[in-house]
Amino acid sequence: MYHKFKGQLLMLCFALFGCFLFTNDDAQASVQTDFIEQMKAPIVKVSRENHLYASVMMAQAMLESDNGQSSLAVEGNNYFGVKGSYDGQSVTMGTQEMTSNGKTISTSATFKKYPTILASIEDNAKILRNGTTDDPDLYSGTWTTNSLSASDAAMALSSTYATDMEYGNKLNHLISAYNLDKLDTSPSSTSINDKLTAEVTRQLSAPKQTNDDNNEPSKITNKKIVIASQHVFPKKTTHNIAPKLMFTLQAATTK
Fold first, then answer.
1. What's the topology of domain 30-190?
2. Residue 154 and residue 52: Cα distance in Å, rounded?
3. What PROSITE patterns does UniProt report for this protein, alphabetically (predicted)?
4. Burial class of 3 by CB neighbour count within 10 A (0 to 12, 13 to 18, 19+)
5. Domain range list for the chain
6. Which pLDDT band, with edges at 50, 70 and 90, does 11 fall under?
7. Could you report how far apart the first and last alpha carbons of the chain are, in Å?
């Protein structure tokens, strides 16, 4: 009888523990999805106005503010871990920094204190667009005009925006886990590939030039036209961009 009772008690404990874990995970997921819903409208608006990826900014906000639950977010409306002061307002917080040899140390720093969440979002966009005084192009790899994808833009922030060398990978994990790339579906976040494709289509559909010698239409006979991007990425861009911007078009035979 005792062993039977003990077995039933253990089963009950495991069941309760399992329910606790499930409820805890569900609650955590709810916190993250609620945060995304709360931040979605202002982040999408500001990112489109500044030609940035909304998915990257959302992932930054999630990571830097612990989904809006960090002391910095609660006390300073600072959702991106931006240091300094804003209109003379700041707050001192403990933080962890990674040294050049990969060692994590605990320290304290002064962070900007914003009057509103929107002010924090707008200031982060301003930083990504304008860089620093010494290097205005420091974060130019995050611009939609300079990167092939949100993933590339996120990797451009590794070892530049944060001391954490895994920063870009962490952002990309959040983008993938929560399908944040759906926030980038807008004309302002059209990729370089799309822009080049549109330009190629425009040029090929334009009226054909005539031959100056005999005033006859020029002939294109099954020639392969190769168009490559001549975009120059800033030297400070930390991520590697493979030569993906190559389009091969088979021109139609004309008479």
1. Lysozyme (1.10.530)
2. 11
3. PROKAR_LIPOPROTEIN
4. exposed
5. 30-190, 193-250
6. low
7. 97
